[in-house]
Design goal:
Distance between the termini: 41 Å
Oligomer: single chain
Number of domains: 1
Structural class: mainly beta
Number of strands: 6
Strand order of the largest sheet: 4-3-2-1-5-6
Amino acid sequence: MTNIIEFKNKLLDAKRDDIDVLLVPQGKYRLAYVKHRITTQFDRGVLEILFRVTDFGSFFGTILPKYFNVELRGKKRFAAKPRSDFFRTYCTLFGQQPRFDSRVLRKFEDVYVEGVVETVSTDHRQQKLPEVARYSVVRRLTRICE
């Protein structure tokens, strides 16, 4: 008999539609890269990066998504235009332009970033969401944390 309890992280194991909606207070958080996926939403290419909150407190370990619109280059590759959110974010964080090869996201694995978390309160038609349907996303990545 053991006193160790294993917690499965549904967010990492499940499809995006099966995930519980997460709501954390708006503000700046220290985040760590967890994983990413390249998919389509609304017939557009989307890079979804999952970050884990590393600030101590009641939301420590919470996983939040950051979405970037990208151009798909097959199932596992993407590109971003120089005026895109991903391109500008990458340049702001790492001080260089991204090279769109298989290692473009590896730089996120080795650093903590500061991210601005906001609550999504309207749907894609700009209709207000009920309180229980609201969720949090990483809106911006602002800097590398020491």
